[in-house]
Amino acid sequence: MQQFQAIVCGAGIAGVSSARHLQARGLSVALIDVRDPGQETSYGNAGIIEASFVLPFGFPATRRFKDILLDKDPSARVDLLFLPRVLKWLLNFYIQSSAENRSKNGLFMRPLVQDSIAEHQFLMKGNDAQQYFTKTGRVKIHRSKASFDGDVFERETLTKLGVPFEVLDPSDFVKIEPAIRPIFYKALKLSSSARVTDPGAVVAGYAKAFVAGGGTFIQGDAGDLKQASNGNWQAAGVEAPHAVVAMGPWAPKLLKPLGYDFPIGLKRGYHQHFKSSAVMNHAIVDGDIGYVMSGCTKGIRITTGAEFAAQDAPANPVQIARVLPFARELFPLDEASEDTPWLGSRPCTTDSLPIVGKAFKHDGLWLNIGHGHSGFTIGPSTGKLLAQMMTGETPFTDVAPYRPERF
C-alpha cells in the first residue's frame, strides 16, 4: 500500500484547496475522488467569489414559505415525501435565521470571505485557471420598491462592516451592463465581489497545479476510508497518518458509520446554459424570483435556488422552467446550449458555517465540509485554515466558530 503523509478525500474546491495547502507546507498528499477534480458540486455553482458576503441565507418569510410548500414559488421547492426527513434541519435553520444569529454567523464567516479573491489568486499561480477570472462580481436586482425596502438589513450590515456597495438606478446599471432590460426598481452592486466563467475548469486547474507540484491524484472511491490497526487511515489503496474528509454532500454517508452525525442538509440545485447574442458582464441575482444569471464559457448560466429532495431522487428541473421567463424579461436569451440541466447538491449546515478542524472521536481524522452556498468562495480559505491547523501553524483566524464539536 502506497504511503503518504496525508490523504484528502474529495476533489472539489475544498478538497483541492486542502491538498494544495498541505503540499505547500511540505507534506506528501494523495487526493482521491471517483471523478475528475471539480466535476461535482464545485462545477455547478454560479462562479461568484463573494468577498462581499455579510449575511447567510435566511429562512424565507412566512408567506413565501407557504408558497414554497404549495410549490408556487420558483426560488425553492420541497418534495413533500421528503419533508419529514428534513423537518428537524429546517427548524434549526429557522432558529439560526433570526436577525441576531444571521449577524453573528455573518461575522464568523467574514474572515473566510474577506480575502477570498486573494486566496483564489494564490491557487491560480502556475496554472491556466486565471483565464476564467474576472473582477466584475455580483449585482442583486430588486424588481420593486417593496423588495428593495425589505432588504435594508443587508445594506445596513454592509455599511456597518465597511463593505463597499453601490445602489444603482436602472439607467445607471445599463451603462455597465448594456444588454440588461431596465424593468427593475434598483440594483445593488457588490463592489468587492469577483467571479469566474467556468468554476469546474478553475478547480481542475488548481488540481493540475497540485499534480505538477508532485502531488498524487487517484481516481477511486474514498468512501471506503477506514482506520487501520496501526492508527493510519486507508482509502483507495493508499495509507497515511492523516485523512481529510472534504466530500461535500457525500461526507455524511462516510462519517455516520464513524459516529458523526452533523446537521447537514442537502439543498439540490440546477443550472443550464443558454445561448445569447449579448455579453453579460456581472453575475446577476434576481432577488425577487430566486435565481442567478452569469456569463460562462458555455453561455449564460441560469442557476436555481434550493430544492429539498433526496440526493438520489430523480431530477426535476421545474425550477429552471419557472425562472426562465423572468430571466428572459431581463436579458436576451436564445435556446439552451444543452438539453438536460445539470443537477447537484449543496451541503448546508444549520448555522451556514463550514465544519473545519479535527474530528473529535478519532486521531488523524480532519474535516473540511458543510460549505453550503459559499463553497466556491470560501473553499480556498478553509483549505488554508485546515492545513495550518494540521501542521501546527498559527491559524489566520480564530477556528472556534468552525470546529466540528460545536454540534
Describe this structure in words.
- The chain has 407 residues and is of the alpha/beta class.
- The chain is built from twelve helices and 23 strands.
- The protein has helices at residues 13-24, 62-69, 83-95, 99-113, 116-124, 145-150, 152-161, 170-176, 199-212, 251-255, 318-330, 375-391, and strands spanning 2-3, 6-9, 29-33, 48-49, 76-78, 133-134, 138-142, 165-168, 186-190, 194-196, 216-219, 226-227, 233-235, 238-240, 242-245, 264-274, 283-286, 291-296, 299-304, 306-308, 342-349, 355-358, 365-369.
- The strands form five sheets. Strands 8-9-7-17-18-19-16-21 form an eight-stranded mixed beta sheet, sandwiched between helices. Strands 11-3-2-15-23-22 form a six-stranded mixed beta sheet, with helices on one face.
- Strand 18 and strand 19 (299-304) form a beta hairpin.
- Helix 1 runs parallel beside helix 9, helix 1 (13-24) packs parallel to helix 12 (375-391) and helix 5 packs across helix 12.
- The protein is globular and about 65 Å long.
- The chain starts with a strand and ends in a 16-residue tail after the last helix.
Please tally the β strands and state the result. Answer: 23
Strand content: 15-25%
Mean pLDDT across all residues, rounded?
96
Which stretches of 5+ consecutive residues score pLDDT under 50?
A: none
Largest sheet: 8 strands, mixed
Total helical segments: 12
Helix content: 25-40%
Strand order of the largest sheet: 8-9-7-17-18-19-16-21
The coarse silhouette is: globular
Rg: 21 Å
Distance between the termini: 35 Å
Q: Helices and strands: which structural class?
A: alpha/beta
